[in-house]
Design brief:
Blueprint lengths: L6 H8 L25 E6 L2 E14 L2 E6 L8 E4 L5 E2 L3 H4 L17 H9 L27 E6 L2 E14 L2 E6 L8 E4 L5 E2 L3 H5 L41 H9 L3 H6 L26 H10 L27 H4 L3 E6 L11 H5 L4 E6 H14 L4 H6 L6 E9 L2 E8 L4 H15 L5 E2 L88 H5 L2
Antiparallel strand pairs: 1-2, 1-5, 2-3, 3-4, 6-7, 6-10, 7-8, 8-9, 11-12, 11-15, 13-14
């Protein structure tokens, strides 16, 4: 999709109609999001829905909350709407005769849970009852029709909401197909799912609507995505079939997610067994065990996550990789970590208060992911996002950052990077232009740690005072902003193979930050990188 994305223009060009608001289990007037980072509340464990746990708000976007269960690791964050019935104020469970439980995978000994609970709640900021909202009622029936447009959560990247189309209707189920992604990310869900929204929802709530992808759009996807996240666990095998495919065949696809890659390249539905199409499908079969197949199957067959009733933020180690879009160099990309100097000078362009709300470090993660998080943080903390955006220019093959100015959303591809040297060089030039030198380093800075230390920072921009971000229509360039990940970062910003091209790496000497002056000398914390940077 070329140019800036607006629903009005897009609907006209595609001759499509939006799904009416009465089709959705969403409030006609989106609820206000008055939650703040670090607030505590009670939430259902998405991996064990019979348990009610203590959760902490670690992210905000639009009318949604990014939650992390206290006592669990940071690889299972999940999103909930502020009017979800699955979140309640602290004390609600006890009031109704229940008992707070440790989350699935509680990191400590189970016997230490009572003491852990006391320490967790002692002095914590509880989310007040008044900011919770009543969940809206479900529609009386499934009113969706094939071809209707809507906005939907990408379940591989739950922090993204994207333009989508109803690909098929089957009883109480609907097939969500993402525009411009050839079926690779589609999924089935109930018509009353909280993960689907009417056209214009993001512009009303201030959430970040991604533009459609750039791949060939199939009017009716032959297969839903092989998602492990299903609206109902009991429907996992039976409801996620394609156009008449057998249940057993779909189960093999669920276990071997490579199936949907080759299927997405076929422009006609094939309800017949997969072995009759082309050799690329062989990895999907159950039987072959030749030595030549073992290595790619090890890379391309991650263990599935536990089924859930909603959309938790999946562990990136379980995100399937698309062999058609992931270059081999990315599969061996090292993890890097960049530290933020909150006590340093933020310069005239960055709001120091917002900088204080950022995490102490970005990563460890792939270099391109860390670069995206750091640059996006600079944009989000800017007094005027346009200023920071103007210092950047279009790269190739990297992650996507976005900024909102002139009443429009603008996105830009960063360069593909694969080492901490590239990341530091890029950030050094950017900070030099922002006059905020010594903002980033490759070693921890000594600073006050009273703020949250390890909250992830991703494209969802959870800064609480982001009220000026999105008003009117959301717009952005047509490059899709989904991306893949191969390593195992300890935070859970899931990244999937939604990048049209990611097979080019820039020359080390290429300049990606605009500005007349050469970058200044490296700050003392970057001294260990001097020799490496001088050779770039």
């Amino acid at each position: 999709f070329s140019g800036h994305f607006t629903w009005e223009k897009y609907l006209k060009e595609t001759c499509a109609i939006p799904a009416p608001a009465h089709c959705f289990k969403q409030s006609y007037t989106p609820p206000a999001n008055e939650f703040k980072i670090s607030m505590k509340l009670e939430a259902q464990d998405p991996r064990n829905t019979t348990s009610t746990c203590i959760a902490t708000v670690v992210g905000l976007t639009g009318a949604r909350l990014r939650l992390r269960l206290d006592g669990s690791d940071n690889k299972n964050d999940f999103w909930r709407l502020v009017d979800s019935a699955e979140i309640q104020p602290i004390g609600n469970c006890e009031k109704n005769g229940g008992m707070l439980q440790p989350p699935l995978g509680f990191r400590l000994n189970a016997s230490s849970w009572p003491m852990f609970l006391l320490k967790t709640l002692n002095g914590a900021e509880m989310a007040p009852v008044r900011i919770f909202h009543k969940e809206p009622p479900s529609p009386s029936q499934n009113f969706f029709k094939t071809g209707m447009k809507l906005e939907a959560v990408d379940r591989k990247n739950p922090h993204f909401i994207c333009p989508a189309t109803i690909g098929e209707v089957r009883g109480s189920e609907v097939l969500i197909t993402f525009d411009g992604w050839r079926g690779a990310f589609d999924y089935w869900c109930r018509y009353d799912s909280r993960d689907i929204f009417p056209v214009g929802w993001c512009s009303l709530t201030g959430d970040n609507l991604q533009p459609p992808g750039t791949k060939v759009v199939i009017p009716k996807s032959p297969l839903p995505a092989s998602e492990v996240n299903s609206e109902k666990p009991s429907m996992h095998s039976s409801t996620k079939t394609g156009l008449g495919q057998q249940q057993g065949q779909r189960r093999r696809k669920t276990g071997k997610k490579r199936g949907r890659t080759t299927k997405a390249l076929i422009h006609h539905p094939m309800p017949t067994p997969s072995k009759s199409v082309e050799p690329l499908k062989f990895p999907r079969k159950r039987g072959p065990k030749p030595g030549s197949k073992r290595k790619p199957r090890t890379l391309l067959n991650p263990a599935p996550t536990s089924p859930t009733t909603s959309t938790p933020e999946p562990d990136t180690s379980t995100v399937p990789q698309d062999a058609a879009t992931v270059p081999s160099s990315a599969m061996q990309a090292p993890t890097v970590c960049i530290y933020l100097n909150k006590n340093g000078s933020t310069g005239p362009h960055l709001d120091k208060k917002k900088v204080q709300q950022l995490p102490d470090h970005f990563g460890p993660a792939r270099a391109s992911v860390v670069l995206q998080q750091a640059v996006q943080a600079c944009i989000d903390c800017a007094y005027h996002q346009k200023t920071v955006f103007s210092f950047l220019k279009q790269g190739h093959g990297g992650e996507v950052i976005s900024a909102v100015f002139d009443r429009e959303q603008h996105t830009l591809n960063l360069p593909a990077v694969n080492s901490i040297t590239y990341v530091l060089r890029f950030l050094e030039k950017l900070c030099h232009n922002l006059r905020s030198d010594n903002l980033f380093g490759n070693q921890p800075f000594t600073q006050n740690s009273h703020m949250q230390r390890s909250h992830e920072y991703d494209h969802d921009r959870y800064l609480p005072d982001r009220s000026s971000s999105l008003d009117g229509t959301l717009q952005g360039p047509g490059r899709g902003t989904k991306r893949y990940s191969q390593d195992f970062p300890p935070y859970s910003a899931p990244l999937s193979p939604k990048l049209p091209k990611n097979d080019r790496h820039p020359l080390e000497g290429e300049t990606f930050v605009l500005g007349d002056g050469l970058p200044g000398p490296l700050e003392p914390r970057l001294d260990p990188m001097d020799s490496a940077l001088n050779s770039v």
